[in-house]
Amino acid sequence: MAELRKRNDVKWTFVSPAAIFDPEGARTGEYILAGEEFTVNDRGESVVSYADYALAMVDEIEKGNHIQQRISVVGK
Predict the structure, then answer these.
(1) pLDDT of residue 16
(2) Among 32, 35, 56, 61, which one has the highest count of C-beta atoms within 10 angstroms of its own C-beta?
(3) Element counts in the chain: helices (H) and strands (E)
(4) From residue 3, how far is each of 8, 35, 61 by CA, in Å?
(5) C-alpha angle 1/22/52, rounded to 5°?
(6) CA dihedral 34, 7, 5, 55 (to 10 degrees)
(7) Residues of the chain whose pLDDT is less than 50?
(8) Phi, psi of 23 (to 5 degrees)
């Protein structure tokens, strides 16, 4: 991470999953994007399904709103 932050010649985005990465969880199509700080949803949970994490990654690839940043994904 430290090495990436020094680079200006590479476009990167580091996407971290929630604390609980649920492989069996449903795709809801809803998620919370946060920064590097630990984030929970309205129920006080830090969980995301693989499906919603993948959706968040594709959305980020298409939109490119967080270039040169680390973000995290939590299920709503």
Answers:
(1) 94
(2) 56
(3) 2, 5
(4) 11, 18, 21
(5) 75
(6) 20
(7) none
(8) -70, -20
Tell me the one-letter amino acid at 63: K
Is residue 32 a contact partner of residue 73, using CB atoms and an 8 Å limit?
Answer: yes
Residue type, 74: V
Q: How many Å apart are CA 4 and CA 22, to the nearest integer?
A: 28
Contacts of 34 (CB under 8 A, 6+ apart): 71, 72, 73, 74
**pLDDT of res. 58:** 96
Residue 68 region by backbone torsions, left for phi larger than 0, else alpha for psi between -120 and 50, else beta: left
pLDDT of residue 76: 93
Cβ atoms 54, 28 nearer than 8 A: no
Whether the Cβ atoms of residue 47 and residue 74 lie closer than 8 Å to each other: yes
Residue 42 main-chain phi, psi, to 5 deg: -65, -20
